[in-house]
Amino acid sequence: MRPRSVFGTSLAVVAALGLTACGGGGDAGASKTVRVTLANHVWTENIKQALPEFEKQTGLKVEVTQLGEDQLSDQYNVKLNAGSSDIDVMMYRPLQEGKLFARNTYLADLAAQVASNKNWDFGDFQPGPVKATTHEGKPVGIPIITEQEVLYYRKDLLDKAGLSAPPKTLDELKAAAAKIKAADPGVAGFVARTGKSPAVTQFSSFLYSFGGDFVDGSGKAAVNSEAAKQAYAFYGGLIKDSGPANVSTDMGWPEAMAIFTQGKAAFYTEANSLYKNATDPAKSKISDQVGFAPFPAGPAGSKPYNIPSWALGINSGSENTDNAWKFIEWATGKEQTLAQQKSGVPGARTSVWANPEGTSTFPKDLVEAISASTEAGVGHDRPLVVKVAEAREIVGQPLVDAITGKDAAAAADTANATFQKFLDDEAK
Fold first, then answer.
1. CB atoms near residue 175 (< 10 Å)
2. What angle do CA 297, 209, 289 make, to 5 degrees?
């Protein structure tokens, strides 16, 4: 079979291939060595320390290959494209590569596995992350690390402004941000990502809370819906009117976080996974004044993203799928998920958030914000496409235009036409 490029596959061809079933009748002559490819991450370091326990319990040996994100993508590009069988378990990014991997049948269908052990309890996983690791109704990955968008805020600045509680709605956020900046022009009322690609993920919660999405129910581009136009205008206007003076339009999270932690902004919407940057005295001048709240509600309610940033899947080319599943079952079980969360890695299981032991290392108000986010959270924070980076550039342009005072509605119309062409090309 001629190799297929991971980043240039024709979806019209691969969509017809379906998913590859995992396991079933067992692996003839299966190896006792499970080959696991993992990303550089705190989760990986934790699991490596616990491996002797798994190996003792099962009699299996785990061989770990650990790589940076770019190296990981390169490795998958070469090996999965070639149909290699020397990867059994793969750590992957569901929202970055998940659709591509599933459609190319690189990920095995795990439907039988997730239903096989009641004690492992697949129903314990949060709906948003599960949806993001499902393809055509079948699970192809198990979420291991989650993120939600929450509101970071300065307690002291709220007190100074006479605000008794953080804003519960986006309208309240806009009013509070304007009030704080008016009182002290040297302090921004609000800060967030502004670069057209990095801002897309954090803008997504605004989009959903206004009632929009990147595509509609029929899969057509929807970034010029009335809800989307309102969301673009709101996000851009909030930064333009209440953001930092002379704000740049190329900020990612490090730049936005720096403004907040240097005491130069009152409100900041961002992923909860970055919270220690704000609460660590070694990194933040305002560490003792940081509070957290649920993402404020828009016209459609509070609908922040609740996503799996990483998941585990089984290479459909593996000849050791039964033992690969034993590793995943253990690594994503309740015990290991609880241990990971206690070390600061947010888990995808509902039970760990309901367990006081699982939330003991997180700020109390952050736990409450996360709990609220998981109830109505949306399982994606970017367009669910194969060429994610290109799509983000397209749908992020109206954000930049809105921040710089241009017509957000006109920019959304232009972006929608470009995005629809992009979707049509991907579907060929």
1. 15
2. 45
Taking the C-alpha atoms of residue 301 and residue 272, their distance in angstroms, rounded to an integer, is: 19
Place of tokens 């959903």: 208
Q: What is the mean pLDDT of residues 216-222?
A: 97
Q: Are residues 256 and 299 in the same domain?
A: yes
Specify whether 152 is located in the same domain as 142: no
Residues in the chain: 428
Are residues 187 and 157 part of one domain?
yes
Domain count, the chain: 2
Asked whether residue 8 is domain-assigned, the answer is no
DSSP 305-351: BEEEEEEEEEBTT-S-HHHHHHHHHHHTSHHHHHHHHHTT---SBHH
User: Are 265 and 332 part of one and the same domain?
Assistant: no
pTM (2 decimals)?
0.86
DSSP 19: P
What is the predicted pLDDT for the residue at 25? 42
Q: Quick one: average pLDDT of 57-68?
A: 96
Q: How many CB atoms lie within 10 A of CB 49?
A: 11
Residues 259 and 135 in one domain: no
DSSP state for residue 68 in the 8-state scheme: -
Angle in degrees, 0-180, between the axes of helices 408-426 and 226-242, rounded to the nearest 10: 130
CA gyration radius, the chain: 22
β-strands 306-314, 142-154 pairing: antiparallel
The closest alpha carbon to 42, from 352, 346, 350, belongs to 346
Q: Which of 338, 354, 376 is the last residue of a domain?
A: 376
Phi, psi of 125 (to 5 degrees): -80, 145
How high does pLDDT run on average in the chain? 92
Burial group, residue 52, by CB count within 10 angstroms (0-12, 13-18, 19+):
exposed
Residue range 200-213: average pLDDT?
Answer: 98
Rounded-to-integer distance, Cα 146 and Cα 345, Å: 8
**Cα angle for residues 51, 55, 59 (degrees, 5° grid):** 170
Query: What is the predicted pLDDT for the residue at 422?
Result: 98
How sure is the predictor about 72, in pLDDT bands with cuts at 50, 70 and 90? very high
Q: Which residues contact 149 (CB under 8 A, 6 or more apart)?
A: 202, 204, 205, 269, 270, 271, 272, 295, 304, 305, 373, 381
Statement to judge: residues 162 and 214 lie in one domain? yes
- Does 165 share its domain with 103? no
DSSP 378: B
The domain of 115 spans: 14-146+308-376
Distance of alpha carbon 351 from the chain centroid:
20
Whether the per-residue pLDDT at 17 is higher than 90: the answer is no
Confidence of residue 30 (pLDDT cuts 50, 70, 90): confident
